[in-house]
Amino acid sequence: MKTNERTVKVVTYASEVCPEVTSERESDGEIIAWADAHPAAWKIVTTSKSGAFGKGSSDHMGWAQNSDSPSAILDRIQTLRRAIEGNGDITADRNEFWRWRATFTLEHYGKKGFKSGFFQQFDGQYPRGCVTLDYTPETRAAVIERFRAWCDASPCRYETRAIWIDGVAVLEVEPEVDPLS
User: DSSP assignment of the chain, as one string?
Assistant: First the structure.
């Protein structure tokens, strides 16, 4: 009988910011490097403080929503990264809102009063456009206006009569009156 010995080299990619996240996949190494360059990203996806991109967010699919496994965390990081860098499967105008949403979360995470809300457009009869957005007390009005502009740019436009956050009206809009009627 012959015996052979061989040495196998295994490359492991590990985060310097979140050392418990490691992978042997080269593509994960790119994701880890991106997140290490944006340290707030690790906090965003490993906690549930951001309703938009945090743990438990509906932006994440299935097991990645709540799992603490390194692969689930990397999946959530990749979702955030794709949103910031753009997602080629929707039109540029609509894509800009999603890019802004992710960039806003990354830039404002950790600021005083940071929180999330479920934003809805109300047309006087039904809730229409809706999305979870992060905001701070100082940015709330600007986020409401950005959400309203997104709704108004929708291919399925509805008149905005109110904007709700978590079911509470935060902006009431008077209906436009036609001067000729």
Answer: ------------EE-SSSTT-EES-HHHHHHHHHHHHSTHHHHHHHSSS-TTTSTT-TTS-GGGGT--SHHHHHHHHHHHHHHHH--TTS-HHHHHHHHHHHHHHHHHTTSTT-EEEEEEEE-SSSEEEEEEEEE-TTTHHHHHHHHHHHHHTSSS-----EEEETTEEEEE-PPP--TT-
Per-residue pLDDT tens digits for 106-138: 999 999 999 999 999 999 999 999 999 999 999
Backbone phi, then psi, for 137, in 5-degree steps?
Answer: -55, -35
pLDDT beneath 50, residues of the chain: none
